[in-house]
Amino acid sequence: MKWSTVTASVVGLAGSVLAQTDTTPFVDADTGITFQSYTSTDGITYRLALPATATGDAAYDVIIQVVAPIELGWAGWAWGGAMTYNPLTLVWTDGTSVQFSPRQALGYYLPGPYDGATYTVLKGTGVNETHFKFTALCTGCASWTDFDGNPYILNGAGDTNFAYAFSATPVDEPANPDSSFSIHDNVGRWIHDLAGARSEEFPEWVTANTPAE
Fold first, then answer.
1. What residues contact 77, with CB distance under 8 A and at least 6 apart?
2. In terms of pTM, does the model score above 0.85?
């Protein structure tokens, strides 16, 4: 597998001047959450909501939402804008429900399971005739340990570069979150407005959309 092909597409983003973001506000009808939302040219949507107090000074939770065409094999979100040494969120459908898989790549090969991020699946997650949608509260998506062993936190008061990847080929074991999967068909990147994703309503959104146990 030629995982190294990711490098040219998504690396080299650090230090760039972020003059314009690629996201717009979007209110999700299923949850009532206002996200900053980006849709790729491939029709995959990546959304994010943050607490009003989110900055780069302390770790914080986020609400993530991914919406993808039903025929997609899997979709991935790279939180550091590159393949390696940052949290990766992979989502797919097993035909009836949505599966998610926290991953991290320590090199340009198949990313392994990652225990530094935990997810609480929220309302607004499901599969219909055309798309699957994953909505979750994530602890550990916006902060991690970098290659040099230093803690890194996304600055919630600014903008950041994210990257995505996807494949039309299904994962090897769709019902298994730890399944292996084939190399991506395409990768891309976007600039996400984190400051615009912050809201005082964040705690209420989490409470209202957390399923009863």
1. 46, 64, 66, 88, 89, 90, 162, 163, 164
2. yes
